[in-house]
Amino acid sequence: MARFTIRTGATALAVAAVVGLAGCSSPVAAENASSSDGAPGTGGTAIGFIMVGPRDDYGYNQAVYEASQILADEHPDLEILTAENVPEDDSAVTTMEQMIDRGAKIIFATSYGHLDAAQQVAEDHPDVVVVQQGNTIAGDILPNSGTYFGTVYEPMYLAGIAAGAATESGKLGYVYAFPIPQTIANINAFERGAQTVNPGVETITVSTSSWCDPAAQREAANSLLSQGVDVITQHQDCTKTVIDATEAAGAHTVGYHADASELAPEGWLTGAVWDWAPLYSDIVATILDGKFTGSEFNANYRVGYKTGTNPFVLAGYGPSVSAETQAAIEDAQAFLATDAGSPFVGPVLDQDGAVKVADGVTPDYAEIDAMDYFVQGVVGDLAN
Fold first, then answer.
1. Which of 84, 95, 114, 302 is buried most deeply by CB count within 10 Å?
2. What is the residue range of the signal peptide feature (predicted)?
3. Mind listing the pLDDT tens digit for each residue in 58-74?
4. Using one digit for the tens of pLDDT, what is the confidence trace for 344-375?
5. How many Cβ atoms sit within 10 Å of the Cβ of residue 100?
């Protein structure tokens, strides 16, 4: 399987599904311009990042933006262009075209729903490499396009251990947007991680049907709290509302996408957060070195703890996470890095008790990415 060359000695790049919120498109901003007229920097290349939400959302888009700025520091000869609140529609094409007009030869389209736009722009501009974050490409793959991602469910499994150890009610809560396979895998891994230290624990799910709707998020969090949930996590692009509501109620928080521990000084446990900068840097290096071709890059490849290059990492621990729990998490992470390691080593049963992964079997990344069921211990109806 072809992959990016990782200069740090790691060997792979990743793909999976994650999503963003549609919003109002904002102008393209030059974050590291080396010329005043918007022309690309002295290296002859500008790099564009389109984000589906605001860069200060304590979540998905903030993680993208912060990594883009690290890339700007690493490459002062390149111009970094960013655009916030770019919807998952034709607006994304327009924004990327504007970036190309300003000299962009590399574009990161960072939302799940940006895939079609990214493919269109790549087809229209064969001299521009367009990579999309968090999806997969079916069928023929253009030589100047690709996707990338990390195995998000692995650190969510580890965070589940912290949640299972912290809960007193035995009830965890999960606020999510849409029941896509990646979200389902995250929820299932979180529950299975919690079960390793608290076998009777359950994870109650609530869907907001949006990647960032503060009103819906507040309602979801309050609904979970009213059911006795005392640890809440989420799969939302903007995370502040859920964390604020959880902290105000005196419950525990597991963060997502970006480190938001400052919002929950009492209730923070840990968080599964992005560290995109090393991966962005390696993607750019691969492209600038002329090594990004259809035969060199596999657009549907994933990395995780097995490759040592998972861009999703655990945030720091809060005050209530014991040394014993931290040790259990460290042991579990070491297990995930082995060939046999997975949050879903069988037996895995669905909510109805049907065997989905046989006893002793370790499913591969592709199987997990096709997950369409909740495991036992998860409360919620995917049909709704």
1. 114
2. 1-30
3. 888 998 999 999 999 99
4. 999 999 999 999 999 999 998 888 988 999 99
5. 20
61 close to 53: Cβ distance less than 8 angstroms: yes
Shared domain check, 236 and 367: yes
Q: What is the CATH number of the domain that holds 41?
A: 3.40.50.2300
Q: Are residues 243 and 318 located together in one domain of the fold?
A: yes
Q: Tokens for 115?
A: 């895939």
Q: 189 lies in a domain?
A: yes
Residue type, 317: Y
364: containing domain:
153-273+311-379
End-of-domain residue from the set 108, 129, 148: 148
Q: Is the pLDDT of residue 112 over 60?
A: yes
pLDDT digit string, tens, across residues 191-201: 999 999 999 99
Report the DSSP beta bridge partners of residue 107. Answer: 48, 130
CA distance 110 to 54: 12
Q: What angle do CA 234, 235, 238 make, to 5 degrees?
A: 90
- Rounded to the nearest 5 degrees, what angle is found at the Cα of 145, between the Cα atoms of 135 and 372? 15
Res. 141 pLDDT band, cuts 50 70 90: confident
Same domain? For 354 and 235 the reply is: yes
Rounded CA Rg of the chain: 20
Q: 102 and 243, same structural domain?
A: no
End-to-end CA distance of the chain: 37
Alpha carbon distance 60, 53 (integer Å)? 8
Task: Write out pLDDT tens, residues 192-250.
Answer: 999 999 999 999 999 999 988 999 999 999 999 999 999 999 999 889 999 999 999 99
* CB distance 161 to 326 below 8 Å: no
Length of the chain: 384
- Per the structure, the count of domains in the chain is 2
For the chain, the average pLDDT equals: 85
Give the burial class of 364: count Cβ atoms within 10 A of its Cβ; 0-12 exposed, 13-18 middle, 19 or more buried: exposed
pLDDT-derived band at 143, boundaries 50, 70, 90: confident
